[in-house]
Amino acid sequence: MSSDVVLYIELHHPLRLKLPAQLVPDGATIEDFRRCLFDERIDSFARHSHQRFYAHPFKTFSDLLEKGCKLSLGVSGGFLRYISQFGTAPVREPLYPMPRWDEFLSQLQLEQTPWGFDDLMLHPQVEIICLEPHSSLSFYLDIDMFIQQTALFKQWWEERLGKDLNVAATTELCMNNEIYQSFAKLHFNAVIMEGAEWALQGREPSYLGKINDHPLLCLRHRPLSLLLMEILSEPSPQNITSRIEAIAQQIKAVPGDVVLLGLDLNALRSYDNRVEASQISLVLSQLCETLNALGVTFATVSEAAAKFHDKAQRLSLPAFTSTKVDGGIGYLLNSNIQQWLFQLMHHAYNMSKLSKNEGLIDMALWLTQIDNLKLAAAASAGLKLDWYSPSHRAEHLSSDELLRELGRVYGNFIKAARYYI
């Protein structure tokens, strides 16, 4: 039976594109370039909505820590840019446009952030998981840049926290051979991977995996994570207590060493607050109390890796990329629309590299966000992505218009980038 549980929570927010697309003037400065491409400002309605959502769970996380729970938190670069707009001392005046990513990091201090975020990050029972900051498919475009940007983020966290970061992941839990070897080059002790059945080749996700001695693979338990996300995402869930008790009993009964529950907080936040923050607090608090009563120990990823290192099972990574959605990377690149957009991402990134301009390269990396591929897929299916929180200027666009404007953003970048080559 499993004796340890790891609670991994991902905090992410996309850097929104400006839609409808805005033409980038010939010879535009880097600041004007950024202003034309991205919509970083949060309007007053969204500001109130987002603050109401995030402030409550952050308080809950602190309460969970007081009860003996331990948390592993993955914080994306987009979330840091987003949360800085709510702080008591904004990163920059004016807020818009925000500076280049490396400049932004050099200016951001944790104590400037709201809702007790800094206290949470510095808590001894919290482990920060290092993410590739742009939440992108940059590992497909330029693996050296993927390593460079992850290393930069790792260094920033270590300087702010005063300790080493030992665990890495990507926002979609993408994993393949080159990602694993990249994290190994950066000397991480463990990485988080989705425990997809097809990728594990019949092995249980409740055992650590190993390829080399380091980093070890800590595997998200998909069935139990999805069960928990289901309760969290229901507008008015019924029988919460009995359902939480059932999940806790299943965790306790899992054969193996450790169960990693992976949650995506951003996926629970909708623009109209369909899921209330208080519900997240209630569910997680009850889960913590029930697991404590059953004698299940909370651990961080690093603690689990150290404790069960000698019991890790040999694992071969598949040739294809695994993700937290069943079937691998296909949900991001399967449709013609997504493939079309990914080609535009590639062209935009190559133009930025030819320019050798750091500002253009920075923008091109943000253009490779996975969120934009999800937005394209949703629009082509006539769906709305609530978590993308579109500005009021984009709300009136039909699906066809949204796709056209999405393509224009990249086309405008490619055209205007010529003036820097």
Q: Could you explain how this protein is built, in words?
A:
By secondary structure, this protein is an alpha/beta fold. The protein has two domains: 4-329, 7-stranded beta/alpha barrel (Alpha-Beta Barrel); 331-420, no CATH class. It has helices at residues 30-37, 44-66, 77-83, 101-107, 117-122, 138-141, 143-161, 177-185, 197-200, 222-233, 240-253, 265-268, 277-293, 301-307, 330-333, 336-355, 358-367, 370-380, 399-417, and strands spanning 4-11, 71-75, 126-131, 167-169, 190-194, 209-210, 216-220, 258-264, 297-298, 313-314. Strands 1, 2, 3, 4, 5, 6, 7, 8, 9 and 10 form a ten-stranded mixed beta sheet that branches. A hairpin with a 5-residue loop joins β6 (209-210) and β7. α18 packs antiparallel against α19. It is globular, with a radius of gyration of 21 Å. Residues 89-95 have low confidence and may be disordered.
